[in-house]
Amino acid sequence: MNYEERGSCNKVKLGIARCLLGESVRYDGSQKLDRYLRDILGQYVEWVPVCPEVECGMSIPREAVRLVGDLDSPRLVGRSSGKDWTAQMYDWGQKRLDQLEREDICGYVFRFGSPSNGMNRVKVYNDGNRVRHDGIGMWARMVMERFPGLPFEDDGRLHDPALRENFISRVFTLKRWRDAMSDGFTAGALVEFHTRHKMLIMAHNVQIYRAMGKIVAKAGTELPELLFAEYFEMLFKGLTYKLTVKKHINVLMHAFGYFKKDLSADEKQEMLELLDQFSKGLIPLIASITLLNHYVRKYSKDYLAKQYYLNPYPAELMLRNHV
């Protein structure tokens, strides 16, 4: 069963730096188009584009700006003129954050290195013109402080296949969580969500999955606001743990166990050979997942068919072709 067939076809909303969609809004009138984000991921998400500089009143073209002063609360100033844009950016930003909250975004893609849009490793100049390289862009900081539970990445980090896969997986999981809870925080909704995400969470961190199970067991006996908030916090903590070949194989072997009475000797051997090749880096993850999905359908394994680990996002994104 593919992703859309399971009722998750409503597009996810994601914030993004406008220049990454090809809009000529940078200080020199250029853009930083990322074709994967616009042309491939853009088919399955609804972008909410933001350019802090332009939207707060700066022109195109314009003087470049930089961060100056204290690392934790730097000022945004013109490189040559020294004009201070900090207050204007902040005042505009508060209103724009309110709009984003109403948009119900499920994540944000920032622009690497930008003094407004960079999520990390941004240059910050002190009064002696010495440079630090561990700052956060002014707008990016505002977004991350307002929405601490969202997945965030920048376009530079998304060139890494593993980071890209993890970010998009978290985005789609958050959308499913919101959809599952849209009719209210009920024990049934929590149990259903947790059951269908078992293998996905296990692939990231087995210990956290077990701890989450204890939270689910309390559903219906404790205040839902506190219980569900605790579950959500643990869910997204768990999904930030790095996936490894060993973790994937452990989960795939777990799924493989559901077929011990169904598969022929040749089918078992074929699956084991694929897992061995994957463990040696000879083939990507998608090869083993494809064969497993084939067996799920062939032998009508309804429980596995509902596991989002096997189809966590649209296959057309081709994320597991490269990990």
TrEMBL record:
<dbReference type="InterPro" id="IPR007553">
    <property type="entry name" value="2-thiour_desulf"/>
</dbReference>
<dbReference type="InterPro" id="IPR013560">
    <property type="entry name" value="DUF1722"/>
</dbReference>
<dbReference type="InterPro" id="IPR017087">
    <property type="entry name" value="UCP037004"/>
</dbReference>
<dbReference type="Pfam" id="PF04463">
    <property type="entry name" value="2-thiour_desulf"/>
</dbReference>
<protein>
    <submittedName>
        <fullName>Uncharacterized conserved protein YbgA, DUF1722 family</fullName>
    </submittedName>
</protein>
<dbReference type="Pfam" id="PF08349">
    <property type="entry name" value="DUF1722"/>
</dbReference>
<feature type="domain" description="DUF1722">
    <location>
        <begin position="198"/>
        <end position="314"/>
    </location>
</feature>
